[in-house]
Specification:
The chain is mainly beta. The protein has seven domains: about 120 residues, Immunoglobulin-like (Sandwich), CATH 2.60.40; about 100 residues, Immunoglobulin-like, CATH 2.60.40.60; about 100 residues, Cadherins (Immunoglobulin-like, Sandwich), CATH 2.60.40; about 110 residues, Immunoglobulin-like; about 90 residues, Cadherins (Immunoglobulin-like), CATH 2.60.40.60; about 90 residues, Immunoglobulin-like; about 130 residues, no CATH class. Helices cover about 10% and strands about 35% of the residues. A four-stranded mixed sheet has the order 1-9-8-4. About 20% of the residues are buried.
Length: about 850
């Protein structure tokens, strides 16, 4: 810092002692952070200078050469730079760059004594000029620790040992920082390096690391450039000072300096356009831009930095200005008038092309034409269109012309554009068109394209309706013309071929579907001697007569029976006639009615039929007299069905059907099957197998008793076969069934209590020990004990089985028990689909069929014959 002050002082003395216009190129000046007004920065010798200018408007160069602040200036912490430019008497321009750096600050003690902070090695930011060539010493780094230590320095950072390497050189012993090569500020605006100081002996740091900031000061080495599109559009006849747009530019030099302050100017096109020198806004300077004269302009634009000074860098470019179109030119006809011909009876045919010219932009709405017939087309015989490619007007005949009525037509046709005219006093142009109608041999014409006759329906055949005649257009005569029907859908009319007279041929019915809204159309053709034809339409307006009475449709009315109430139904009648031969109708009961029903009017076409007595459920035929407004009508039968209803419909409805062969076969098939079953039963009953000799073996279980008789043995006690079953768990037909043989009386009276749940009771034991023993003896009792044991086992199984089936709580066999279902009228042809229908396990009673060959003969002996 002291070196800088000494350097400034020396320069000032040198400048003061030299009487010539010479300034240094670089000057560092310590200043306070806030520079007051009038504060002198430095002083230059301007005695031999023609002009001195400061680049910073906050500083001025006075007549005595003093560079002073004219307004308060705050200096940033990293300093501020500006330059002073002088011009010598010899015409040479010299520049002095002035770098303002902040002075060290001091703190005032409370007692008023100023105390300087301990100055660490903290030099101000260094500045180097962009593109400055080295080598040049920048400054020497000095640490306060040099007073106590033999030190050396270490430097790291970009520009030294990091990219870009080689910009700076550093002497670690002396601390001198040297610039080696030029630097581009637009690429590297500043360098921040880190300096450290070490003791040479101990290699310990003697001071804290110091960040070194090196600012690269800008020089004007980048010319301004155009940015973005340079094409603009302006409508023709735009007013002066109309803005076209802004010329956008950019400059890579440092912002906030004159290096990027652009001055704009036009080199060409100054008679039509102008540009704001500071903002670059393009404007129009004339009201006479005409697209039809010139639709595009190219102007040269110059941009110059340093606010346009001679030392500024220059770039030029071309701006394109397109003149937009407005509809300032109406379409004009190429001829003053047009002529054409049109044949009579022709229509929808192009008869003339009308060309036009328009100076406006082609294919734009300002150029596209549309044509209007302003005069002569009162009957709409013509129409205009536009050819999209050629822009010509197309004249069509839209409706046939009659030569006998019109031989010449004069039209006025006006040409317009799709948009209105603007920027001109011209008006739309019109042109006359003369058309000649040529004659053609025409067929006969009826006196009118349509004719209407009024005729009543049911008019007697042969009655004359009217005459429909035709004439020759040229001669106005009907001679030699013949008349024919073309269409007559119901064949109601005959036409006299010579006179065109129409007569009734068949009964005309207004209610026919051929009549629409009371009108019936007939097409006729007239043919002259040259076979030319003409057509016309005859409209018959058919008047109504009262030839229909009100009719009640034959369908049944349903009266739903309700207990304690007498119901009613609505009777609606229809009449094909129209008013006054139709509704309102009158409804009444015949004089001899039975008093079961009454009728009251509901509206013009309906009545309510009320039940007066309790009546059986069937179809009742109720006579009702119905008449139209004229009193025409008769007694009609209304069918009323009284029935029980659901949702307004009868629950049952009788119906009839005829049975075909398959139906009779379906009815007879069950009878045939029943007959076959009877025959089979008779066959089995009549057929008896031979007696089988049964041997008493040990595995018989004592069930069979030896007998020498071949007939059913009466000595066999039937009580041995009967097994009583009872209990609350047994359901269905199994409960209380007697399994017994003939003459089984003794044991059958003791059903209850003898066998319960498959257990032999005390009564059973007494029975066998008493009565049974007395009849058969001890030997038979042993056999009977075996028999009883066998039945006991089977009975227990059956009892548990039936109880299991009857139980519903587990849900496993609930569907296999008997349920009550509502009968729906028709059985299933598929048979049972229950879960047990295909159950093939052992949980069934088929074991009764597998008890052995001795059981079946025993069953045959014991069964009733």
């Amino acid at each position: 810092m002291a070196n800088a002050i000494i350097f400034v002082a020396c320069v000032t003395l040198i400048l003061a002692g030299v009487e010539s216009c010479v300034v240094p190129s670089l000057l560092y000046v310590p200043v306070p952070q806030t520079i007051p007004t009038g504060y002198e920065i430095t002083r230059v010798n301007v005695a031999d200078c023609d002009g001195v200018v400061s680049s910073n408007r906050n500083f001025a160069v006075l007549s005595n050469g003093s560079v002073a602040a004219i307004t308060p200036v705050t200096v940033p912490s990293d300093g501020q730079v500006f330059y002073v430019q002088v011009q010598g008497s010899n015409g040479l321009q010299l520049r002095m760059d002035v770098f303002l750096i902040l002075k060290p600050t001091f703190n005032r003690q409370p007692n008023g004594v100023l105390k300087r902070y301990k100055r660490r090695w903290s030099p101000p930011p260094f500045h180097i000029l962009e593109n400055e060539q080295g080598p040049r010493d920048i400054d020497r780094l000095v640490s306060d620790s040099e007073a106590r230590h033999q030190v050396y320095y270490n430097l790291t950072g970009p520009g030294f040992d990091k990219h870009p390497v080689g910009v700076f050189k550093f002497d670690s012993l002396s601390g001198m920082l040297t610039l080696l090569k030029a630097v581009d500020r637009e690429e590297y605006p500043q360098f921040i390096l880190t300096a450290r100081v070490f003791d040479r002996t101990t290699h310990m740091q003697t001071d804290l690391p110091l960040p070194i900031t090196i600012h690269v000061d800008d020089v004007n080495d980048n010319a301004p450039q155009f940015q973005g599109s340079m094409q603009f559009t302006v409508l023709e006849q735009s007013k002066a000072r109309t803005s076209l747009g802004k010329i956008n530019t950019t400059d890579r030099d440092q912002e906030g300096t004159d290096h990027v302050k652009i001055r704009y100017s036009l080199l060409t096109g100054l008679d039509k356009f102008a540009i704001n020198p500071e903002t670059g806004d393009l404007t129009v300077v004339t009201n006479a831009l005409d697209r039809e004269t010139q639709d595009k302009y190219s102007v040269r634009v110059q941009i110059k930095d340093r606010d346009g000074k001679d030392s500024g860098l220059i770039t030029t470019g071309t701006a394109t200005i397109i003149v937009g179109d407005i509809n300032d030119n109406p379409p004009t006809f190429t001829k003053s008038s047009f002529q054409g011909t049109v044949n009579e009876n022709e229509f929808d045919k192009l008869i003339l092309r009308i060309p036009v010219e328009d100076k406006d932009l082609k294919d734009s709405p300002n150029w596209k034409s549309k044509f209007v017939i302003t005069k002569g087309n009162e009957n709409n015989n013509f129409r205009m269109a536009t050819d999209a490619k050629t822009n010509e007007g197309l004249l069509y005949v839209a409706k046939p012309l009659d030569y006998e009525k019109t031989k010449n037509v004069r039209l006025d046709i006006q040409a317009r554009n799709e948009v209105d005219l603007t920027g001109t006093t011209d008006q739309w142009r019109s042109v006359p068109v003369d058309l000649t109608v040529t004659n053609a041999d025409e067929g006969p014409e009826f006196t009118g394209p349509t004719i209407r006759f009024i005729v009543k329906e049911n008019t007697p055949n042969g009655t004359t309706i009217g005459t429909y005649k035709a004439v020759d257009p040229e001669t106005k005569s009907s001679d030699g013309i013949k008349y024919y029907k073309v269409t007559d859908p119901a064949a109601w009319v005959n036409v006299d071929r010579n006179t065109g007279e129409l007569r009734v041929a068949n009964t005309i019915d207004r209610e026919s579907h051929f009549v629409k809204d009371g009108l019936y159309n007939i097409t006729m053709r007239a043919i002259d001697a040259s076979s030319k034809t003409g057509t016309g339409t005859v409209i018959l307006q058919v008047e109504d007569v009262n030839d229909n009475i009100p009719i009640v449709p034959p369908s049944e009315r349903v009266l739903c029976e309700k207990e304690g109430e007498l119901g009613s139904v609505l009777v609606v009648a229809e009449d094909l006639d129209r008013s006054p031969f139709s509704a309102p109708f009158t409804f009444s009961m015949p004089a001899d009615h039975d008093g079961k029903w009454s009728v009251t009017r509901f509206n013009d076409t309906a009545a309510t039929l009320q039940q007066l007595k309790e009546l059986p459920m069937k179809v009742h035929k109720v006579p009702v007299i119905i008449k139209d407004l004229q009193g025409n009508g008769k007694t009609q039968i209304v069918n009323v069905r009284i029935c029980q209803c659901r949702n307004g419909a009868c629950l049952t409805k009788p119906w009839s059907a005829s049975l075909g062969p398959l139906g009779w076969l379906a009815l007879l098939l069950p009878l045939l099957l029943l007959l076959l079953l009877v025959l089979l039963l008779i066959f089995f009953c009549k057929t008896r197998a031979e007696n089988i000799q049964l041997e008493d073996t040990a595995d018989s279980g004592g069930i069979l008793i030896k007998s020498n008789t071949e007939a059913p043995g009466e000595e066999v006690d039937s009580s041995l076969i009967k097994v009583p079953i009872s209990g609350p768990d047994i359901k269905g037909s199994v409960l209380n069934q007697d399994w017994q043989v003939k003459n089984s009386n003794t044991l059958g009276r003791q059903d209850v209590g003898l066998y319960k749940g498959g257990i032999v009771t005390t009564d059973m034991q007494e029975f066998y020990s008493g009565q049974y023993d007395s009849q058969y003896g001890t030997q038979q009792l042993n056999y009977d004990a075996n028999f009883l044991s066998n039945w006991q086992t089977n009975g227990r199984y059956l009892h548990q089985k039936l109880s299991y089936f009857g139980g519903e709580e587990d849900g496993r066999y609930a569907d296999d028990i008997v349920h009550h279902y509502g009968y729906e009228g028709v059985g299933s042809a598929a048979g049972s689909v229950g879960c047990c229908s295909d159950d093939g396990d052992n949980e069934n009673l088929d074991f009764l069929n597998t008890l052995g060959p001795k059981f079946k003969p025993l069953a045959g002996i014991c069964k009733k014959t």
